[in-house]
Amino acid sequence: MLSSMQPRVRALDVIYLSTYRTTQFCLLVFQCRKCRGIKELNMPITCSCAGQFRTLTGCDDLSQLVKTFRGIALHYKMQLLLEVVQWTMTMNGWATEDDGGEQARS
Fold first, then answer.
1. Averaged over 25-46, what is the pLDDT?
2. Rounded to an integer, what distance in angstroms lies between the CA atom of residue 33 and that of residue 23?
3. Contact, 69 vs 100, CB < 8 A?
């Protein structure tokens, strides 16, 4: 019984990770390049350690991650993950690659 639940649990973990990383990007979480501290709302442009801030999750990193999840969803036929990934790609204006007619089917 437990082994039949593992793929579903792992799919939910992947969906959670995808959603978490997307949320980080959308909220523009900034991290200091020098001390790795997270920027708070009312902080100045530079960190107290004189370091510059950068986004915690870059657009290219997130795009690559979502494309990887799309490949996983297609390969393992995870319909829910595929729907989440396609929605994320559509909302961010990332073109979905042609999957050569292969689709995840339940």
1. 82
2. 20
3. no
Strands (E), the chain: 30-32, 53-55
pLDDT over threshold 50, residue 99: no
For residue 23, what are the CA distances in angstroms to 6, 40, 43, 62? 25, 16, 21, 10
- Closest by Cα among 19, 86, 90 to 57: 19
d(CA 66, CA 24): 14
Query: With bands split at pLDDT 50, 70 and 90, how would you rate the model's confidence at 34?
Result: very high
Residues with Cβ < 8 Å from 23, sequence gap 6 or more? none
